[in-house]
Design goal:
With 218 residues, this protein is of the alpha/beta class. It contains ten helices and seven strands. It has a seven-stranded parallel sheet, with helices on both faces. The radius of gyration is 16 Å and the shape is globular. The structure holds adenosine-5'-triphosphate and magnesium ion.
Amino acid sequence: MLTVTIISQKGGAGKTTLAIHLAVAACAAGLPTVIVDTDPQATASRWGKWRNGADPDVIDCASHSLLPDKLAALDQAGAAFAVIDTPPAADIMAREACRAASLLLLPCRPRAFDLDAIRTTAELAKASGKPAFVVFMAGPPRAGVLYPEAEGVVRQIGLEVAPVMLPERAAFHHSVAEGKAAGETEPNGKAAADVARLWKWVGKQANVIPRKHASKVA
Ligand SMILES: Nc1ncnc2c1ncn2[C@@H]1O[C@H](COP(=O)(O)OP(=O)(O)OP(=O)(O)O)[C@@H](O)[C@H]1O
Ligand SMILES: [Mg+2]
């Protein structure tokens, strides 16, 4: 089971938005997918309820000590892709979620305060030894020197930047308010295209999309 953990100690960085959109993209590509919501705020779980039973399943796991067993059970039950959404804290839950991951994604707004605040999250990611990438979230879709500068800061911190971002688009917040993802409310929109590119990159990065599914994301 490919397990992608989304971490950022900063509140509102875009963790749940990223988790939901990746999970819906994975479902659309035919992978049995689950979101594991380890955040006591339970945002992803509420979104899951608004979906009235549509995939992906959203599983609560508020206790870090239960996480390994829950993931093992999901794997046994045939899940191919798990996205772990985490609370806004670099605490024991985030550490456990990193330990379980094949790949770490660190959502971050491309802004000075946000970039400064990812240092603690970056330390956690580096300590885990797992492949880790910053994903720029909710920045301007076109922004001249902003992204190269932000990328420079991330590299100084010792992390890589994912080549795909999810910039500020209304579809990312409108869709989730309806218990959907952007690709479900506006399948031909720019947000859907961003997510498709991100999913394709995640699949390649983790090198785990089974051959039979690969054509669906190419
Ligand atoms: N790319 C984007 N375009 C537009 N809005 C976005 C984007 N990414 C995130 N948002 C909005 O930013 C806000 C915070 O996002 P989100 O809830 O995903 O962050 P979070 O890191 O999970 O927050 P928390 O730390 O509280 O769990 C939400 O209102 C969300 O809709
Ligand atoms: Mg959240």
